Amino acid sequence: MYLALYRKYRPARFADVAGQQAITETLRRQVAEGKTAHSYLFTGSRGTGKTTCAKILAKAVNCPNAKDGEPCLECDICKGIDNGTLLDVVEMDAASNNGVDQVRLLKEEAVYTPAQSRYRVYIIDEVHMMSVAAFNALLKIMEEPPAHVKFILATTEVHKVPATILSRCQRFDFKRIQPEDIAGRLGYIAGQEQAVLDPDAAFLLAKLADGGMRDAVSMLDQCLTVDSHVTTQLVTEITGITGSDYLFSITGQILAGDKGGLLKQVDALYRSSKDLTRFLMELVQHLRSLMLLKADPGCDSLLVCSGQELEQYRAQAAQTSLPFLLRGITVLQQALDSMATSPDKKLWVEMALLKLSDAKLEDSGQALLQRLDALERQVAQLAQTGVTVTAAPEVTARETTPVPEPVSEKPEPETPKVSSEGTQEATLSPSAEQAVQAQPPVDPLPEEPPAAPPEFAPPPEDSGEIPPPPSQAETPKPEPTAKAQPKLLESWGQVLEEISKINPPLFGVLSGSIAHDVGGGRLVVDSPYEMFSAMIKKENYLSSLQKALFQVTGNKYRILTKKKKKAAPQENRLEQLEQRAKQLQIPIIHPDTSSGQ
Question: pTM of the entire structure?
Answer without folding.
Answer: 0.57
